[in-house]
Structure to design on (239 residues):
């Protein structure tokens, strides 16, 4: 999995995409640009927070980045947003490796990749390799003008390069504690769009990492960024 991140970084610098030899021996291995018409995300049974959509997603992205936190007056960390890069992994959805790819990526992202997330995003923006799907970050809530809302931005990559409405700003719909390890892994989410035209709904699932320490000291503990990985599926329904 370290080969994916290093190859992406080098691809942006050298204007070519690596051969992804970690994932397949063939030099023509394709990671992005495949149909996902038969794919549906899988959610735990016995809960109603995340419901599998009836229609397939338009995009499936593997994300790596950071969850950002500040220490509150209650001596616990509160979220101040996130920054992440989404990679198009549509050609992997039928592969056995797809099930655990987020864990493999997290191990590489946590221990083997020396680049900060913003540096990776900045370099990838320069040359736009085809695997780059979108960037995820937070913006001021467009409905209230206060607080933060998550945004998935497709405007700087691929077929949507330069299309001003190729993004989604969203609000919360469903929240499910990670069924893996909720103290380590950030929650699985279902959010719906309030602005933008790329999607109506986004699911975050198969999360690894991202949770802050249980406590901090107000006025002393610095702001922190906690690495995480996850999958995101974006759906655009036609009514």
């Amino acid at each position: 999995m370290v080969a994916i991140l290093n190859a992406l970084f080098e691809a942006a610098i050298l204007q070519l995409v690596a051969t992804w030899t970690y994932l397949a021996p063939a030099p023509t291995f394709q990671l992005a640009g495949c149909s996902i018409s038969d794919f549906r995300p899988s959610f735990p049974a016995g809960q109603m927070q995340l419901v599998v959509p009836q229609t397939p997603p338009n995009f499936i992205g593997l994300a790596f980045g950071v969850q950002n936190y500040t220490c509150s007056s209650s001596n616990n960390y509160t979220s101040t947003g996130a920054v992440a890069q989404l990679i198009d992994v549509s050609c992997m959805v039928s592969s056995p490796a797809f099930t655990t790819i987020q864990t493999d990526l997290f191990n590489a992202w946590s221990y083997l990749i020396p680049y900060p997330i913003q540096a990776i995003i900045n370099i990838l923006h320069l040359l736009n390799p085809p695997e780059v799907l979108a960037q995820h970050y937070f913006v001021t809530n467009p409905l209230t003008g206060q607080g933060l809302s998550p945004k998935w931005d497709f405007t700087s990559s691929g077929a949507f390069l330069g299309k001003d409405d190729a993004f989604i700003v969203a609000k919360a719909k469903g929240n499910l504690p990670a069924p893996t390890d909720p103290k380590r892994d950030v929650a699985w989410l279902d959010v719906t769009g309030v602005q933008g035209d790329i999607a109506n709904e986004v699911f975050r699932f198969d999360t690894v990492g991202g949770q802050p320490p249980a406590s901090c000291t107000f006025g002393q503990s610095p702001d922190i960024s906690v690495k995480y990985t996850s999958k995101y599926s974006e759906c655009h329904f036609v009514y």
Helices lie at 2-14, 101-111, 117-127.
